[in-house]
Amino acid sequence: MSAPGRTAMATDRKPRDDEIDVYGLTHQGKVRQSNQDHFLICSLSRQVQVHQTSLPDIGQVAGAAERLAFLAMVADGVGGGNMGGEASRLAVEHITAFVLQSVHAYYTADPHDDAAFARVLEEAAMQAHADLLERGQNDPDARGMATTLTLWIGVWPRAYLLQVGDSRCYVLRGRELTQISRDQTMAQELVDAGVMKRSEADRTKWAHVLSSAIGGPQTAPVVVRLDQAWNQVGLLCSDGLTKHVTDERIRERLRTMSSAKQACEALLEDALADGGTDNITILIGRTVRKD
Protein backbone atom coordinates (compact mmCIF):
# COMPACT_ATOMS: atom_id res chain seq x y z
CA MET A 1 0.00 0.00 0.00
CA SER A 2 1.44 3.36 -0.99
CA ALA A 3 1.80 6.20 1.46
CA PRO A 4 -0.71 9.07 1.20
CA GLY A 5 0.36 11.63 -1.35
CA ARG A 6 3.12 9.44 -2.78
CA THR A 7 1.68 9.38 -6.29
CA ALA A 8 1.24 13.13 -6.34
CA MET A 9 4.79 13.62 -5.05
CA ALA A 10 6.18 11.39 -7.81
CA THR A 11 4.82 13.63 -10.56
CA ASP A 12 4.80 17.05 -8.91
CA ARG A 13 7.70 18.28 -11.02
CA LYS A 14 9.66 17.21 -14.05
CA PRO A 15 13.19 15.86 -13.57
CA ARG A 16 16.08 18.28 -13.60
CA ASP A 17 18.83 17.66 -16.13
CA ASP A 18 21.04 16.16 -13.43
CA GLU A 19 18.27 13.66 -12.59
CA ILE A 20 18.21 12.18 -16.10
CA ASP A 21 20.60 9.27 -16.59
CA VAL A 22 20.77 8.54 -20.32
CA TYR A 23 23.32 6.95 -22.62
CA GLY A 24 23.49 5.57 -26.14
CA LEU A 25 25.93 3.62 -28.26
CA THR A 26 26.12 1.97 -31.66
CA HIS A 27 28.40 -0.83 -32.84
CA GLN A 28 29.09 -2.39 -36.22
CA GLY A 29 28.87 -5.93 -34.86
CA LYS A 30 31.09 -8.85 -35.80
CA VAL A 31 29.80 -9.61 -39.30
CA ARG A 32 28.64 -6.47 -41.14
CA GLN A 33 31.18 -4.45 -43.12
CA SER A 34 29.62 -1.11 -42.15
CA ASN A 35 27.28 0.33 -39.54
CA GLN A 36 23.97 1.47 -41.05
CA ASP A 37 22.41 2.42 -37.70
CA HIS A 38 22.17 5.98 -36.42
CA PHE A 39 20.87 7.43 -33.16
CA LEU A 40 20.29 10.75 -31.45
CA ILE A 41 19.72 11.84 -27.84
CA CYS A 42 18.93 15.50 -27.23
CA SER A 43 17.13 18.02 -25.07
CA LEU A 44 14.64 20.38 -26.70
CA SER A 45 14.18 23.94 -25.58
CA ARG A 46 14.06 26.93 -27.90
CA GLN A 47 17.07 25.21 -29.41
CA VAL A 48 18.44 21.69 -29.49
CA GLN A 49 21.25 20.63 -27.17
CA VAL A 50 22.89 17.45 -28.42
CA HIS A 51 24.16 15.04 -25.76
CA GLN A 52 25.21 12.12 -27.95
CA THR A 53 24.78 11.05 -31.55
CA SER A 54 26.35 8.92 -34.24
CA LEU A 55 25.71 11.67 -36.81
CA PRO A 56 28.89 13.42 -37.98
CA ASP A 57 27.83 17.02 -38.52
CA ILE A 58 25.35 18.09 -35.84
CA GLY A 59 26.69 21.01 -33.84
CA GLN A 60 26.43 21.55 -30.10
CA VAL A 61 24.23 24.38 -28.84
CA ALA A 62 25.41 25.88 -25.56
CA GLY A 63 23.41 27.79 -22.99
CA ALA A 64 20.02 26.37 -23.92
CA ALA A 65 16.92 27.56 -22.06
CA GLU A 66 14.73 25.43 -19.80
CA ARG A 67 14.17 21.95 -21.19
CA LEU A 68 10.77 21.54 -22.81
CA ALA A 69 11.15 17.94 -23.91
CA PHE A 70 13.64 15.12 -24.21
CA LEU A 71 14.08 13.37 -27.54
CA ALA A 72 15.74 10.05 -28.43
CA MET A 73 15.61 8.05 -31.64
CA VAL A 74 17.09 5.00 -33.33
CA ALA A 75 17.13 4.38 -37.09
CA ASP A 76 18.28 1.10 -38.67
CA GLY A 77 19.02 1.52 -42.36
CA VAL A 78 18.05 -0.85 -45.16
CA GLY A 79 19.73 -0.84 -48.56
CA GLY A 80 22.71 -2.03 -50.55
CA GLY A 81 26.20 -0.62 -50.09
CA ASN A 82 26.12 2.38 -47.80
CA MET A 83 22.58 3.39 -48.78
CA GLY A 84 21.04 2.01 -45.62
CA GLY A 85 23.34 4.12 -43.50
CA GLU A 86 22.54 7.14 -45.65
CA ALA A 87 18.82 6.49 -45.23
CA SER A 88 19.02 6.25 -41.44
CA ARG A 89 21.21 9.34 -41.26
CA LEU A 90 18.85 11.39 -43.41
CA ALA A 91 15.79 10.25 -41.46
CA VAL A 92 17.30 11.25 -38.11
CA GLU A 93 18.54 14.58 -39.46
CA HIS A 94 15.31 15.45 -41.26
CA ILE A 95 13.04 14.58 -38.36
CA THR A 96 15.23 16.53 -35.94
CA ALA A 97 15.11 19.53 -38.28
CA PHE A 98 11.34 19.17 -38.65
CA VAL A 99 10.86 19.13 -34.88
CA LEU A 100 13.04 22.21 -34.45
CA GLN A 101 11.44 24.21 -37.26
CA SER A 102 7.83 23.20 -36.79
CA VAL A 103 5.85 25.86 -34.98
CA HIS A 104 3.13 23.30 -34.41
CA ALA A 105 5.48 20.92 -32.58
CA TYR A 106 6.60 23.04 -29.63
CA TYR A 107 5.04 26.50 -29.70
CA THR A 108 1.40 26.04 -30.71
CA ALA A 109 0.68 22.31 -30.33
CA ASP A 110 -0.75 21.41 -26.94
CA PRO A 111 1.18 18.38 -25.63
CA HIS A 112 -1.89 17.50 -23.59
CA ASP A 113 -3.90 17.19 -26.83
CA ASP A 114 -2.89 13.64 -27.72
CA ALA A 115 -4.48 13.66 -31.16
CA ALA A 116 -2.82 16.93 -32.21
CA PHE A 117 0.58 15.90 -30.88
CA ALA A 118 0.33 12.51 -32.59
CA ARG A 119 -0.42 14.22 -35.91
CA VAL A 120 2.71 16.35 -35.54
CA LEU A 121 4.88 13.28 -35.05
CA GLU A 122 3.20 11.37 -37.87
CA GLU A 123 3.72 14.38 -40.16
CA ALA A 124 7.42 14.39 -39.28
CA ALA A 125 7.70 10.71 -40.22
CA MET A 126 5.79 11.16 -43.47
CA GLN A 127 7.96 14.16 -44.40
CA ALA A 128 11.11 12.08 -43.85
CA HIS A 129 9.53 9.32 -45.94
CA ALA A 130 8.81 11.76 -48.76
CA ASP A 131 12.36 13.12 -48.58
CA LEU A 132 13.85 9.63 -49.02
CA LEU A 133 11.51 8.82 -51.91
CA GLU A 134 12.49 12.07 -53.65
CA ARG A 135 16.15 11.25 -53.13
CA GLY A 136 15.59 7.88 -54.79
CA GLN A 137 13.81 9.45 -57.74
CA ASN A 138 16.66 11.88 -58.34
CA ASP A 139 19.53 9.47 -57.73
CA PRO A 140 19.38 5.93 -59.20
CA ASP A 141 21.96 4.73 -56.67
CA ALA A 142 19.64 5.78 -53.83
CA ARG A 143 16.60 3.84 -55.03
CA GLY A 144 15.45 1.30 -52.49
CA MET A 145 17.13 2.99 -49.53
CA ALA A 146 14.95 2.87 -46.43
CA THR A 147 15.15 2.83 -42.66
CA THR A 148 13.32 1.99 -39.49
CA LEU A 149 12.63 4.80 -37.04
CA THR A 150 11.74 4.53 -33.38
CA LEU A 151 11.45 7.89 -31.62
CA TRP A 152 10.75 8.68 -27.96
CA ILE A 153 9.80 12.20 -26.95
CA GLY A 154 9.21 12.95 -23.29
CA VAL A 155 7.03 15.95 -22.40
CA TRP A 156 6.77 15.34 -18.66
CA PRO A 157 4.69 13.65 -17.33
CA ARG A 158 3.74 12.27 -20.74
CA ALA A 159 5.80 10.59 -23.41
CA TYR A 160 5.06 9.75 -27.02
CA LEU A 161 6.50 6.89 -29.03
CA LEU A 162 6.66 7.16 -32.82
CA GLN A 163 7.51 3.94 -34.63
CA VAL A 164 8.08 2.82 -38.20
CA GLY A 165 9.72 -0.59 -38.69
CA ASP A 166 11.04 -3.04 -36.11
CA SER A 167 13.46 -1.09 -33.93
CA ARG A 168 12.01 -1.61 -30.48
CA CYS A 169 11.07 0.34 -27.37
CA TYR A 170 10.90 -1.31 -23.95
CA VAL A 171 9.93 0.11 -20.57
CA LEU A 172 10.89 -1.41 -17.22
CA ARG A 173 8.48 -0.60 -14.39
CA GLY A 174 9.61 -2.20 -11.16
CA ARG A 175 10.44 -5.77 -12.16
CA GLU A 176 8.16 -5.85 -15.22
CA LEU A 177 9.58 -5.31 -18.71
CA THR A 178 7.07 -4.35 -21.42
CA GLN A 179 7.69 -4.05 -25.15
CA ILE A 180 5.82 -0.86 -26.02
CA SER A 181 6.47 -0.96 -29.75
CA ARG A 182 4.97 -3.44 -32.20
CA ASP A 183 7.31 -4.96 -34.79
CA GLN A 184 6.24 -3.85 -38.26
CA THR A 185 7.43 -7.03 -39.96
CA MET A 186 5.83 -9.62 -42.20
CA ALA A 187 6.24 -12.16 -39.39
CA GLN A 188 4.23 -10.00 -36.99
CA GLU A 189 1.55 -9.53 -39.65
CA LEU A 190 1.27 -13.32 -39.98
CA VAL A 191 1.04 -13.68 -36.20
CA ASP A 192 -1.67 -11.02 -36.00
CA ALA A 193 -3.57 -12.81 -38.78
CA GLY A 194 -3.41 -16.07 -36.85
CA VAL A 195 -1.35 -17.80 -39.54
CA MET A 196 1.47 -18.74 -37.18
CA LYS A 197 2.50 -18.52 -33.55
CA ARG A 198 4.93 -15.97 -32.20
CA SER A 199 7.50 -18.65 -31.38
CA GLU A 200 7.32 -19.93 -34.97
CA ALA A 201 7.45 -16.50 -36.59
CA ASP A 202 10.73 -15.59 -34.93
CA ARG A 203 12.45 -18.45 -36.74
CA THR A 204 11.12 -17.72 -40.25
CA LYS A 205 12.65 -15.64 -43.02
CA TRP A 206 9.84 -13.13 -42.48
CA ALA A 207 11.05 -12.18 -39.00
CA HIS A 208 13.18 -9.30 -40.31
CA VAL A 209 11.28 -8.43 -43.50
CA LEU A 210 9.76 -5.02 -42.85
CA SER A 211 6.11 -4.37 -43.62
CA SER A 212 6.62 -0.64 -43.04
CA ALA A 213 9.70 1.59 -43.36
CA ILE A 214 10.70 5.21 -43.93
CA GLY A 215 11.45 5.31 -47.66
CA GLY A 216 10.08 1.80 -48.26
CA PRO A 217 7.18 0.64 -50.45
CA GLN A 218 4.85 1.16 -47.50
CA THR A 219 5.10 3.35 -44.42
CA ALA A 220 2.63 3.37 -41.55
CA PRO A 221 3.77 5.56 -38.64
CA VAL A 222 2.27 4.60 -35.29
CA VAL A 223 2.18 6.95 -32.30
CA VAL A 224 1.54 5.69 -28.77
CA ARG A 225 1.08 7.89 -25.70
CA LEU A 226 2.62 6.85 -22.39
CA ASP A 227 2.75 8.17 -18.86
CA GLN A 228 6.19 8.78 -17.39
CA ALA A 229 7.13 8.18 -13.77
CA TRP A 230 10.21 8.44 -11.64
CA ASN A 231 12.60 5.45 -11.68
CA GLN A 232 11.15 3.93 -14.86
CA VAL A 233 13.75 2.74 -17.36
CA GLY A 234 13.28 3.11 -21.11
CA LEU A 235 15.25 1.32 -23.83
CA LEU A 236 15.35 1.91 -27.59
CA CYS A 237 17.27 -0.53 -29.75
CA SER A 238 17.81 -1.81 -33.26
CA ASP A 239 17.19 -5.49 -33.97
CA GLY A 240 20.91 -6.16 -33.76
CA LEU A 241 20.29 -6.41 -30.01
CA THR A 242 17.06 -8.39 -29.97
CA LYS A 243 18.32 -10.97 -32.50
CA HIS A 244 20.78 -12.13 -29.85
CA VAL A 245 19.51 -11.04 -26.43
CA THR A 246 16.24 -12.29 -24.95
CA ASP A 247 13.68 -10.08 -23.27
CA GLU A 248 14.44 -11.86 -19.99
CA ARG A 249 18.12 -10.97 -20.27
CA ILE A 250 17.24 -7.37 -21.13
CA ARG A 251 14.97 -7.23 -18.08
CA GLU A 252 17.72 -8.45 -15.77
CA ARG A 253 20.27 -6.04 -17.20
CA LEU A 254 17.92 -3.09 -16.70
CA ARG A 255 16.74 -4.24 -13.28
CA THR A 256 20.29 -4.49 -11.94
CA MET A 257 21.83 -1.54 -13.79
CA SER A 258 24.14 0.85 -11.98
CA SER A 259 23.94 3.46 -14.75
CA ALA A 260 22.61 3.84 -18.27
CA LYS A 261 26.16 3.63 -19.64
CA GLN A 262 26.90 0.41 -17.74
CA ALA A 263 23.66 -1.21 -18.92
CA CYS A 264 24.25 -0.23 -22.57
CA GLU A 265 27.76 -1.66 -22.49
CA ALA A 266 26.61 -4.87 -20.77
CA LEU A 267 23.84 -5.47 -23.34
CA LEU A 268 26.27 -4.79 -26.18
CA GLU A 269 28.63 -7.41 -24.79
CA ASP A 270 25.72 -9.87 -24.57
CA ALA A 271 24.84 -9.31 -28.24
CA LEU A 272 28.45 -9.63 -29.37
CA ALA A 273 29.00 -12.75 -27.30
CA ASP A 274 26.06 -14.41 -29.04
CA GLY A 275 27.43 -13.65 -32.50
CA GLY A 276 26.86 -9.95 -33.20
CA THR A 277 25.51 -10.68 -36.69
CA ASP A 278 24.03 -7.21 -37.23
CA ASN A 279 24.66 -3.60 -36.32
CA ILE A 280 23.74 -2.97 -32.69
CA THR A 281 22.33 0.28 -31.31
CA ILE A 282 21.16 0.70 -27.71
CA LEU A 283 19.77 3.77 -25.93
CA ILE A 284 18.82 3.62 -22.25
CA GLY A 285 17.34 6.36 -20.08
CA ARG A 286 15.90 6.67 -16.62
CA THR A 287 14.93 9.36 -14.12
CA VAL A 288 16.54 9.26 -10.67
CA ARG A 289 15.05 11.63 -8.11
CA LYS A 290 17.70 13.23 -5.93
CA ASP A 291 15.65 15.08 -3.32
Rg estimate, integer Å: 19 Å
What is the string of helix and strand elements?
A: HEEEEHHHEEEEEHHEEHHHE
- Based on CA inertia axes, which overall geometry fits? globular
Mean pLDDT: 86
Stretches where pLDDT is under 50 for at least 5 consecutive residues are 1-10, 103-108
- Give a quick account of the main beta sheet: strands, pairing sense, barrel closure: 7 strands, antiparallel
Number of structural domains: 1
Work out the number of β strands: 12
CATH A-level architecture:
4-Layer Sandwich
Tell me the CATH superfamily: PPM-type phosphatase domain
Distance between the termini: 22 Å
CATH topology: Phosphatase 2c, domain 1
Please bin the fraction of helical residues: 25-40%
What would CATH call the class?
Alpha Beta
Strand content: 25-35%
Structural class: alpha+beta
Query: Number of helix segments?
Result: 9
Describe the structure.
The structure is a single chain. With 291 residues, the chain is of the alpha+beta class. Mean pLDDT is 86; it is low at 1-10 and 103-108. The radius of gyration is 19 Å and the shape is globular. It is built from 9 helices and 12 strands. The longest helix is centred in the middle third of the chain and has 25 residues, at 114-138. It starts with 5 loop residues before the first helix and ends with a strand. It has a single domain (33-182, 214-287), classed as PPM-type phosphatase domain (Phosphatase 2c, domain 1, 4-Layer Sandwich), CATH 3.60.40. It is 32% helix and 26% strand. The strands form 2 sheets. Strands 2, 3, 4, 5, 6, 7 and 10 form a 7-stranded antiparallel beta sheet that branches.
